[in-house]
Design goal:
20 strands, 3-stranded antiparallel sheet, 9-stranded mixed sheet, binds iron/sulfur cluster, about 375 residues, globular
Length: about 375
């Protein structure tokens, strides 16, 4: 902890002054321009005096041990537990948000837990978690806290995971992703209209982040698209998305198509039929993507990992549980020796599908 009280406002990075006296936040593409006393759209960044601050440093909505497959990450330390936490607020306004109680929360409503970066790293070590995930709400908006937690985790031999929409400004991308060993980035749809209408965001900024992470960092990357019936699940849109990933990121970036459930401001749309998810998976595979998964449904075949050369099952999954293991100690297919891209240990973890709340001491 860097000489700051837990739960304090800390100076924010990535902003500059404007000629008219306002301060512009450059952390995300919204570029909020703040007068004295104002907060940004994310609510957790505010102007105090002549600077922009993060108001939620050291504060969390609670801690939980999850299966890493729940993030979802299928090629990153399979079978291990991940210490997961979030804060409050968000920089997108998705009408279909599945974590709206956290992302739409005002800080004082939700941030019951306080913990220093070192306390979080030690809690991960003591609980046997191999990684810490910044999740539930978007860690971009609490970058200063996330980066400090990540540094403490690395000192303790614990890896770090960002679950994010990738809506981050160009200047902040290098610092944020340099701190992350893995990222699951939401690609929420593949039209600007979808991002504008349902998230008040922009597709181009997210595509730029995906390209940056793949080509300019060492962060392991997986992508998730929540398929919403009638909004982003047409064959044409899934095909365009898949071809973009294939052409710009290559065949080895895992893509997860997950099922929508009615939530937040979109309760009048039915859950995604499993057939729609399986069709999307087939379209992506036809485009050349090698590791495509379905999520939020029961589909063992669609959630297992197969060797891209010989077709052997490398990692069998039933939901979040590992059911078989066909990788050797180097992360290669036991049958034919082809490398499976990802970050693997010689054997899978044994955490299973459990979810366990965790108390983390403040200091
Ligand atoms: S991080 Fe928050 S304050 Fe900064 S531009 Fe984005 S929404 Fe606005």
């Amino acid at each position: 902890m860097k000489n700051i009280g837990i739960g304090a406002s800390v100076p924010g990075r990535y902003w500059h002054g404007l000629a008219d006296g306002r301060l512009q936040c450059d952390l995300c593409p919204r570029e909020c321009k703040l007068h004295g006393g104002q907060r940004g759209l994310c609510f957790v960044r505010a102007r105090e005096g002549n600077q922009i601050v993060l108001t939620t440093y050291g504060r969390s909505s609670g801690f939980c041990l999850d299966p890493i497959e729940k993030k979802p990450l299928n090629h990153f330390l399979p079978g291990t537990s991940v210490l997961s936490f979030g804060t409050a607020g968000c920089n997108l306004t998705c009408k279909f948000c599945q974590n709206w109680d956290i992302s739409k929360a005002r800080a004082d409503d939700r941030l019951q837990s306080q913990a220093s970066p070192e306390a979080i790293a030690q809690a991960a070590v003591q609980s046997g978690a191999r990684s810490v995930a910044f999740t539930y709400n978007d860690p971009v908006i609490f970058l200063e806290y996330a980066v400090d937690v990540a540094a403490a985790c690395r000192d303790a031999g614990v890896k770090t995971v960002a679950v994010t929409a990738g809506y981050i400004g160009e200047a902040a991308r290098p610092e944020f992703f340099a701190a992350m060993d893995a990222a699951n980035i939401d690609l929420k749809g593949f039209t600007q209209d979808f991002y504008r209408k349902l998230c008040t965001g922009s597709l181009g900024a997210v595509l730029d982040t995906l390209s940056f992470v793949k080509h300019e960092t060492k962060t392991w990357l997986e992508i998730t698209t929540l398929l919403i019936p009638g909004e982003n699940d047409s064959s044409q849109e899934v095909s365009a998305l898949s071809e973009w990933v294939m052409g710009n990121l290559g065949p080895d970036v895992p893509v997860h198509f997950t099922a929508f459930h009615p939530d937040w401001k979109m309760r009048d749309i039915a859950p995604t039929p499993p057939s729609r998810l399986k069709r999307a998976r087939q379209i992506a595979q036809d485009a050349g993507l090698r590791y495509v998964y379905t999520g939020n449904i029961h589909d063992e075949a669609g959630q297992s990992t197969y060797c891209q050369r010989c077709g052997a099952c490398l990692i069998g999954r039933d939901g979040y549980a590992i059911t078989s293991w066909g990788l050797d100690a180097q992360g290669c297919c036991s049958a034919c020796g082809a490398l499976c891209p990802g970050i693997f240990e010689p054997s899978p973890g044994r955490w299973g599908a459990r979810r366990a709340p965790l108390i983390v001491a403040a200091a």
